[in-house]
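Suppose you are handed only these lines of text.
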Amino acid sequence: MIVRMIRNKLRLIRYYSADRPRSVWGRATNIAFAAALALTAPAVWLVDRAFVLRVSQLHITGRLYESADGTVWAGVVPDVGLRGTAGDDSVMSGMFQLAVGTAHHGWPFESSRRHPGAQLGLDLFARGEPQADVDLPADSSLRAAIELALLEAGHDEAVDVWQGEQPAVSHRLSAWLANGVVWYLLLSYTAWFGVFLSRFGWRVVQAGRHVRQQQRQREGRCVACGYDLRASEFSERCPECGTLAE
Ligand SMILES: [Zn+2]
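From them, the structure of the protein bound to zinc ion can be written out as follows.
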């Protein structure tokens, strides 16, 4: 008794959970959503490559000092003075400016940053002309002084970029995931809307055809080709196209 009840229940469950024959539109919607899912990763990747959210330029300016014994000091403006006045006998010997460019990529969230590097500009008073894009050797005391000044002013990232220690591209995993969700929603909504529009268009075409057929029937013409059937009253087929006349 109970076994039979359970068996019947199971049969019902199997019946109702069986695949129903789906309409063409239901299948089209499924394909559209699958396509949206498949396109999500390429879309997020492409947008990260091609779309620059914004470009930020950081210009750090500072002053260079030299003591009587030849020691070089540097201080970032407006923090100048902390190091610059280290020795009373130090004099200002020049200026420096470090330009750090960062391209922020991705949409809607910044999924990666690209650091093309940093350019150092030097204006050493003893030399006269300012120099742009100076490449100081790694063991240069001037380089060490500027680096120290940058670190003291809290520009750690700028130092990393300048030294080439920062990877050229840094990724943000959470933004990659968030962009994935946003793009999936956008693409699937677009795909769904495409199917919806096609379905709507198809219905309009169908309705138009129906109206035309009814009009032909009223006028006593063949519903398929519009041939005048009033003359061939006794024939049950259209002599033009062979459609059964009603
Ligand atoms: Zn016909």
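What can we learn from it? The radius of gyration is 38 Å. The helical segments are 2-17, 24-50, 141-152, 156-163, 173-218.
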